[in-house]
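hi! just following up on the protien thing from before. the input was this:
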Amino acid sequence: MSTTRRLVILTEGQFGAHHAKTAMGVIRYATDRTVAVLDSSIAGRNVSEWLPGHDIPAVATLAEALALPEPPDTLLIGIAPTGGKLPAEWRATILEAIDKGLEVHSGLHTFLGDDPEFSAEAAAKGVRIVDYRRPPERHETAIGRPHAPGKRVILTVGTDCAIGKMSVALELRKSALRQGDKAVFVPTGQTGMMIDGWGVAVDRVISDFVQGTVEWMIEEAEGRGDWIIVEGQGSLDHPAYSSVTLGLIHGATPHAMVMVHKPGLAEHDWDHIAGHAFPIAKLPGFIRLHETVAGLVAPSKVVGIALNTMLYPDEAEAREVVARIAEETGLPAADPVRFGGDGLWAAVHKAVDELPWVARALPVVPST
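and the predicted 3d structure came back as:
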């Protein structure tokens, strides 16, 4: 995605940290500039109420967004609903955007570019529809590709969906770059792709090709840097989304993993039948499970805990939770989004370099 795009993000009735995680992620991390959020339920308010430092108005209509001093050139679909379907009531807004000459960018499973009405209107107006979840034409099964010498691969994994695995990966990259490490973020979902401009939404890839797709993405990332930070998806024990997690673990064959956890969350995020709730796993056993599952293909170790403490708005209490979980797991822990990730990255860096399967692969620096 060009770094010069001006976005109006459509979240009608769903703006917030959970349902509009795509909007939140793009606003927080993308180089493209969001000029407005299109959502009549919060019209007249400002995104800075939810994301301090981001002065972005919420508007009720596309016409209001187009009347801004710097109007948008792209309508971005800002939600990631279960099943990835387009809300039917949004069709009129999308058609209006196309009619006004805006590109439409979407991360839904519903491919807007395949919709006859949308595609015909886009062709008539000469604008693009970009479906980020459209899988690549490259179909490869995994071949067990070894990592290049001197490269370190880290995967974010989690105890649930939509708790911040992408945000943690991006915060760790930010800290790594700040500390002089040549780090690369590997986007494996539509929001990460919108932010970083490359990658594959692996949840849309044919299951036989998931691990192979992750392998060639890792290979590409290794050509860009030394520290490869892979965005995680789903969770290993999620009744609906465990398969994508397993594919990432065995496709990335990470040297190490960072466990993302949302303390205070009791059950999996899942539109389940009443009476079929699944509790969030306890950290120590869940950590061991990940190391065992990864070890079926290649050794890996969880070397840090990244926490999402949003259920603890009081800062002092949140910091106490971080300290308690660090003691419980014996691992460095932090909330990198809320409190910064520099300390966690330094600890992860040190732990990864000391892993025996990493140390053997690092280049030997001759003594002087």
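The CA atoms of residues 2 and 288 lie 41 Å apart.
The mean pLDDT is 94.
cheers
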